[in-house]
Amino acid sequence: MRGVPAHVDKTLRRKAQAAHKSLNEFLRGALLREAGEAERLVPAYTDLDALAGAWVEVPGFDEALRAQDGVDEALWR
What we know:
With 77 residues, the protein is mainly alpha-helical. Helices cover 43% and strands 0% of the residues. The model has no long low-confidence stretch (mean pLDDT 87).
């Protein structure tokens, strides 16, 4: 980082890594907390919980999927 002493840079990078965050994400959070806007810190969800139970049956989907499992012999000659 420009203008930041090397020992401070190293400490911040180590803290970001310990928090399993990028340096940018870690510093953004620190700046928001310091500015008194910690409520703007929205957790980044990387799971698929929002999709649970959302399956919709689509007519013809299974048939289309099965059609892709076939081997075109002409392509393998």
